[in-house]
Write a structure and sequence with these properties.
569 residues, alpha+beta, BirA Bifunctional Protein, domain 2, YbaK protein, Rossmann fold, 3 domains, nine-stranded mixed sheet, six-stranded mixed sheet, 15 helices, globular, binds adenosine-5'-triphosphate, binds magnesium ion
């Protein structure tokens, strides 16, 4: 028989003070409300309240997957290193991949994602186009030995992920499956109460060429994105936007003294020109050891992800290396640099004829420098991070900037893994062909954190009904007598209507109970006090709006049950 939960028995050790290690509201509140505890860096225990919310998020995911015909299953968390060697990712994944050896000395990995495992699973069993398409998924802990685990559940080392993999016979089929998953992901965000945007994304370690991330908008988010009124939105690391170049001063190549600090801002101010009219230089050593000088519009930054695509795992040049290649910090430029330096410029500057660049001498710049005449640009590449005001690649209007939390991502993989791992099927024309694949991940534990990040105030969490650990909290101001009886009755009636209820039965002062109720943030609070009960009433407080109203004891269960059920989505 269903019953209500007594606060006195709930394992939710709340904290009175803000934990010092928590920078983000979600991290702080999940700790304070007794929902999570840190076991070690990036390793968290989910206590009962968090677990209830996580299960609800998983239920939403399962329903949406079922609606598009994806099937749930489970593979092992620890998988053989050989399949990672086969796909080629053993060598490229880096230290985030937790590798271990078993007692026989064989290599294993703790799955950070499972493309290899699923391809290995199906490759000898899905044999014919007649069996396709198939989409299979699991909800399971993943492990990534993140360099900087932080922000609580946002960036853990062990975290819960739902990961799906699709196998199609044709590119069109894969695109349709991908669109279905994308649609389901949008609905998962919406049903969990997240305000999220689908943004064009980089494919990162996973690979493939078409990918979208769902970004929960939040100022505290780690991801930077740009969006346009026309609906275009992209991660700055993926956005290939229009940057309007601005010419520097002068037409003739001429050395000018610039006795100012070696920053673009100082240079622009000293010369009375815009930062964009200057050229910013970044000196790096590419993975293949080539020294590279990257030139960008002065008001834009080199995007690390774009740079990694172009140069592999690169390093920023040290001052000794700069000296070796004839470059001077703060006054770098292509003219006078060592011949071995490869000069690469952002593609937005291709038509610009007058560049203001460093002269490779402290206190000096060169104006009016023209590529092709005064120096050579070896390659034009998309290198700059998109930012506010850049032109939308779709409609040309200025873009807006925002920050977000990446809660999920979908990828069209094509044949990247199926080819590498020899996973083929017999097509209608009798030929063996590699599967057209897609993969789709939702950070379940990160979604929980994102919901809190978007839904809280200075007093605590404000749970959307759909993912709230409990839906109603009853706060009797007396733990005995008629007040307790009324609270108990309302709680039982609500439970009978299928509502999830906590009763704060502790012998605490009302202030303590109210504070905890706001901190834990269940959507509705029912306050039972002596005075109201004399009039046959209790007070209902809506946690989100703060509105309070008196409702007859006889009616309150029906009244609240209706409200709650309507918001369950
Ligand atoms: P990020 O860029 O934030 O490191 P990612 O792009 O590497 O994430 P994916 O490989 O796309 O992550 O994994 C799918 C989802 O798993 C992500 O959208 C995110 O919600 C979640 N996720 C990834 N890394 C972590 C982590 N360290 N902690 C919690 N959730 C994570
Ligand atoms: Mg991602």
């Amino acid at each position: 028989m269903k019953n209500y939960m007594k606060m006195s028995q709930l394992y939710a050790p709340t904290l009175k003070e803000d934990p010092s290690e928590a920078e983000l509201a979600s991290h702080r509140l999940l700790l304070r409300a007794g929902m999570i505890r840190k076991t070690a860096a990036g390793l968290y225990s989910y206590l009962p309240l968090a677990w209830r919310s996580l299960l609800k998020i998983e239920t939403v995911i399962r329903e949406e997957m079922e609606a598009i015909g994806a099937q749930e299953m489970q593979v092992p968390m620890v998988v053989p290193g050989e399949i990672w060697q086969e796909s080629g990712r053993w060598d490229v994944y880096g230290p985030e991949l937790l590798r271990l050896k078993d007692r026989h000395g064989r290599d294993f990995v703790v799955g950070p994602t499972h493309e290899e495992t699923f391809v290995d699973l199906v490759r000898n069993e899905l044999r014919s186009y007649k069996q396709l398409p198939v989409t299979i998924y699991q909800i399971q802990d993943k492990f990534r030995d993140e360099m900087r685990p932080r922000f609580g559940l946002m960036r853990g080392r062990e975290f819960i992920m739902k990961d799906a993999y699709s196998f199609d016979a044709t590119v069109e089929g894969m695109q349709k499956t991908y669109e279905d998953q994308k649609g389901a992901y949008a609905r998962v965000c919406e049903r969990c109460g997240l305000r999220a945007l689908p943004v064009v994304a980089d494919s990162g370690q996973i690979g493939g060429d078409t990918s979208v991330e769902f970004m929960a908008l939040a100022d505290a988010g780690e991801a930077e994105l740009v969006w346009c009124d026309c609906d275009y939105a992209a991660d700055v690391e993926a956005a290939c936007v229009g940057i309007a170049y601005e010419e520097g001063p002068g037409q003739e190549c001429e050395r000018i003294e610039t006795p100012c600090e070696g920053s673009i801002a100082a240079l622009a101010a000293y010369l009375g020109i815009s930062e964009r009219a200057c050229r910013k230089s970044f000196a790096i050593i590419a993975e293949d050891e080539t020294p590279v000088l990257c030139l960008l519009p002065g008001d834009h930054e080199l995007n690390e992800v774009k740079a990694e695509h172009a140069f592999g795992h690169y390093d920023v040049m040290t001052e000794e290396q700069m000296a070796e290649y004839g470059l001077v910090k703060g006054y770098m430029g292509p003219i006078g640099a060592d011949k071995r330096v490869r000069v690469v410029a952002d593609v937005s500057l291709k038509d610009s004829q007058s560049w203001l660049v460093g002269a490779n001498e402290e206190g000096w710049h060169i104006k009016g420098a023209r590529p092709g005449r005064d120096f050579t640009v070896d390659e034009w590449l998309d290198l700059a991070s998109a930012k506010e005001g850049d032109a939308c690649p779709r409609c040309g209007k200025p873009l807006h900037a925002a920050r977000g939390i990446e809660v999920s991502q979908v990828f069209q993989l094509g044949t990247k893994y199926s080819e590498a791992m020899g996973a083929t099927f017999m097509d209608e024309d009798g030929k063996e062909k590699p599967f057209q694949m897609g993969c789709y991940g939702i950070g379940v534990s990160r979604t929980l954190a994102a919901v809190v990040e978007q839904n809280h105030d200075e007093h605590g969490i404000i749970w959307p009904v759909c993912v709230a650990p409990y839906e109603v909290e009853i706060v009797p101001l007396d733990a005995k007598g008629e007040v307790w009886d009324a609270a108990d009755r309302v709680a039982r009636e609500l439970v009978a209507k299928g509502i999830e209820v906590v009763v704060d039965d502790r012998k605490e002062r009302p202030g303590v109970k109210f504070n905890d109720a706001d901190l834990m943030g269940f959507p509705y609070q029912v306050v039972c006090g002596k005075r109201g009960i004399k009039d046959g009433k209790v007070e209902v407080k809506d946690r989100a709006t703060g509105e309070r109203e008196d409702v007859a004891i006889d009616e309150v269960a029906t009244y609240l049950a209706e409200k709650v059920v309507a918001q369950r989505r």
